[in-house]
Request: fold
Amino acid sequence: MSKQISILGIGWLGLPLAKALIAQSHKVKGSTTRKEKLNSLENENIQGFQITLTEQGPNGDIVSFLEGSKILIINIPPGLRRNPEVIFVAKIRYLIPYIEKSDVQNVLFISSTSVFADAEGFPLISEKTAPNAISNAGKQLIEVEHILQNTTTFKTTILRFAGLFGTDRHPAHMLSRRSNIKNPKAPVNLIHLEDCIRIIKKIIKTKSWSETFNASYPDHPEKAAYYSTVCEQMGLPKPDYDFGTQSKGKIINAHKINKKLNYRFKMDLNFS
Reply:
């Protein structure tokens, strides 16, 4: 059955997700912070809205953006790398009253496995593991998860993605040529864009609301060996690692996605 879905944040993940949902006959509204993107969204049959979340409340026609949609996908990163002073929690707090007054019944919040801290011994992380991030971004994501899931007006599912990669984006590009990279023996936790989209579609299809899912490919090779191989395959200079310091990391267990959604990963960790 086709639905109208609002995607807050049409970017690297949001745009191909919107196209995939439209291909399934869903109607999609999408938000962007850039006015010049609106025409390109309309060309993709996405009803575009210029919306920016701020610490004083959302700017833009948020009411029309949410109107008629039963599902809202929040796909907005905290943005703390560019501006460490941003209070992401405040942006979401100001958004919630608009959701409560809208037609939205279910929210899918795209979070991150960065809500879990790295540790020596590489602990196995499941949905039963209590988030324990020490970074500002991770702590704010944890608080936002709690705020959304404790709001009773709508049901919220939390989807925590590991590191994202695709044909046009891979962490190897950022690591190439770098030196003294920490945690060379840490397990790799990654997920391909196509699997991200397929998992989101599965959540919508199975109506898996009020849930929490960790999403990472089930193989976890050693960081140094993996990225050295990928850089070689890409024709990029290999990174240099700091093997003199104890590595910290974690292993993200995605068994709940396999069991609850009956989902099997389509892509592997090949750089393409």
In short: Residues 185 and 222 are 5 Å apart (CA to CA). The mean pLDDT is 95.
